[in-house]
Amino acid sequence: MVAFAILIFLFLGSVEGFSSKSQPCTYDKSKICKPALATAAFSTISFLLGAITSVVSGFLGMKIATYANARTTLEARKGVGKAFITAFRSGAVMGFLLAANGLLVLYIAINLFKLYYGDDWSGLFEAITGYGLGGSSMALFGRVGGGIYTKAADVGADLVGKVERNIPEDDPRNPAVSSVLRFWKSKLRFFHSDCHRVVSLFSGDC
User: Fold this and answer.
1) Number of domains in the chain
2) pLDDT (tens digit, 9 = 90+) per residue, 97-141?
3) 71 and 86 Cβ atoms separated by less than 8 Å
4) What are the residues facing 33 on neighbouring strands?
5) What is the value of pTM for the model shown?
6) Measuring CA to CA, which residue among 158, 165, 159, 163 is closest to residue 182?
7) Are 6 and 92 in contact (CB under 8 A)?
8) Which of the four pLDDT bands, split at 50, 70 and 90, describes residue 27?
9) Distance of CA 81 to CAs 36, 66, 71, 90, Å?
């Protein structure tokens, strides 16, 4: 994340040769816009904010999902209706929380950046685009990292069964390689990446 932030700062800052002087705006030569170095710095900050918000959203989503699954399982003993209500309310809480979390950070960032940019809306919009990029990058690594983790868990379970218990590969006596467990591990991986994508999608559109 830090490496990407440094690259963003270097690329954006080198557009005008790391100039710290204000220059005429491209859309209106009669107006003066903020220097490219300031835009590069604020874009880097917004990238880090988006990445951190995405990571926090993924963590909160996984916490809520873990507790919600346990409560839904307990309520399922009383009937399908109560289990559905618990699952539906838990999903609603999680969805609203993640969206509100991302929007709150985006709103605060825009207002803080506006204190510096003032009427330079072009510079403000260019600086805040890093927020969506940060959220999207964390969503990408969350999905890829989750796939690597689940595959390593499957291979490790196969090896443990073969070495310690002399159980063939994909044998039903090894609970770690059962199709049901693999199904839920894959669902967990996609769910974790979707928590990141909740932030990255609307922040990118903003």
Assistant:
1) 1
2) 888 888 888 899 989 988 888 877 777 888 888 888 888 787 777
3) yes
4) 23
5) 0.71
6) 158
7) no
8) low
9) 58, 20, 13, 14
For 187, the token pair is: 């669902």
Burial of 106 (0-12, 13-18, 19+ CB in 10 A): buried
Domain range enclosing 9:
2-205
pLDDT for 60-110, tens place per residue? Answer: 877 887 888 788 888 888 888 888 888 888 888 887 888 888 888 889 998
CA angle 43, 106, 118 (to 5 degrees): 65
Tokens (6 digits) for 159: 């090896």
Q: How many residues does the chain have?
A: 206
Spatial distance between the Cα atoms of 113 and 45, rounded to a whole number of angstroms: 10
* DSSP string across 38-95: HHHHHHHHHHHHHHHHHHHHHHHHHHHHHHHHHHHHHHHTT-HHHHHHHHHHHHHHHH
Evaluate whether 74 touches 154 at the Cβ level (below 8 Å).
Answer: no
pLDDT for res 108: 92
∠ CA 134-101-72, nearest 5°, is 115
